[in-house]
Design goal:
- By secondary structure, the protein is an alpha+beta fold.
- It has 2 domains: 89 residues; 229 residues, BirA Bifunctional Protein, domain 2.
- The chain contains 11 helices and 9 strands.
- The strands form 2 sheets. It has a 7-stranded mixed β-sheet with strand order 1-4-5-9-8-7-6, sandwiched between helices. A two-stranded antiparallel ribbon has the order 2-3.
- It starts with a helix and ends with a helix.
Length: 340
């Protein structure tokens, strides 16, 4: 039995010396020292030894077990060190190489201009109101003094989902919905930004575009209040020297109505190709809220008045930054967007 123990110890040392991985080393441990390992099988034969030999063989077996375990620990440490060195060699990083370029995002020019518009009117005491983009014919047209047979509907060639449901052509329905909720309380001062939809598609029009409309309703509001508000807005948006001009126009939901121009942001009003040598650029439409719109929304038109205005954010953005094609705002071309 002593010979078997000596032979087992020698064989275990040889196999441990040849082991090339922690997994192989674990297999050796189980094969020699496990519950069903070779050392256990040898010790089961100690019952046939004499009483004098058993202590000596038991001591020898414990010494061999301890020696194998010591060798296993030492070999395991060597293998771990080798594996770590190999990993460091294979996965080394050259810190002198240039780093990966991380592209920084930025705000879209439409968002930049929208935030400027919102901040200007928030500073004047307005609040921001929102409404659904899928709207009813009533709120999009009829409540705004545009009955079903009104010829002005032709100007807003519309995306209808059904006879009574459509994609809104303006954010004016938000004005009506807001007045319905607040009537008869005063004052009402809101701006309504959002997407609107019309069947237009060329260099200066898009089937989907962004609009901001404003509404102020209170006692004794006059057209001069409207002019002062929009003149202030124009100076804040385009510069302190910007002038404004009001031209008579027609909108079914305002009376009287006006188109609002600003002095050309390129030439300062002297005349250039951008303003067709007129010195003026149109930016929005406005007017006093039509009495019928006030009545439909729950206000007494004999007691209160109001003004409303609306502008396309794309139009303002194109004028502010000198962009000559609206489609650039929607094409996601980085060469264009990175300029902002």
């Amino acid at each position: 039995m002593k010979d078997k123990l000596h032979e087992l110890g020698a064989r275990a040392r040889e196999e441990m010396a040849e082991a090339g991985s922690p997994e192989e080393l674990d297999e050796i441990r189980i094969r020699f020292l496990g519950k069903k390992g070779e050392l256990t099988r040898i010790l089961r034969g100690m019952g046939g030894l004499s009483a004098e030999e058993r202590p000596r063989v038991g001591k020898m077996a414990n010494e061999i077990r301890a020696a194998i375990e010591k060798e296993l620990t030492a070999k395991s440490a060597i293998l771990k060190k080798l594996i770590k060195e190999q990993m460091l060699h294979n996965e080394k990083i050259d810190v002198t190489l240039p780093g990966t370029v991380v592209w920084r995002g930025g705000r879209h020019p439409l968002n930049i201009v929208l935030e400027e518009i919102e901040n200007i009117f928030l500073g004047l005491g307005y609040t921001i109101a929102e409404g659904p983009e899928i709207e009813t014919d009533y709120y999009n047209f009829e409540a705004l003094n545009l009955p079903k047979d009104h010829p002005a509907r032709d100007m807003q060639d519309t995306f209808f989902i059904s006879n009574e449901i459509l994609l809104r052509t303006q954010t004016s329905p938000v004005q009506v919905r807001t007045m319905e909720k607040t009537a008869p309380k005063l004052p009402v001062k809101i701006i309504a930004p959002g997407k609107v939809y019309r069947r237009d598609d060329d260099a200066t029009h898009s089937p989907m575009f962004n609009q901001v409309e404003g509404l102020a309703v209170d006692q004794r509001i006059t057209f001069s209040d409207l002019k002062g508000t929009l003149a202030y807005f124009a100076r804040e948006m385009f510069g302190k020297k910007t002038k404004t001009r009001f031209r008579p126009s027609y909108f079914p939901f305002t009376e009287p109505s006006a188109e609002v121009d600003v002095s050309c942001v390129i030439c300062g009003g002297t005349g250039c190709r951008v303003c067709s040598h007129t010195g003026w650029l149109e930016i929005l439409g406005a007017g006093m809220v039509h009495p019928r719109v006030l009545e439909v929304s729950g206000y007494n038109s004999e007691d209160v008045t109001g003004f409303a205005f609306g502008m396309g954010i794309e139009r303002i953005t194109m004028l502010k930054y000198g962009i000559d094609d609206m489609r650039l705002l929607f094409e996601n071309d980085l060469r264009f967007l990175q300029q902002f």
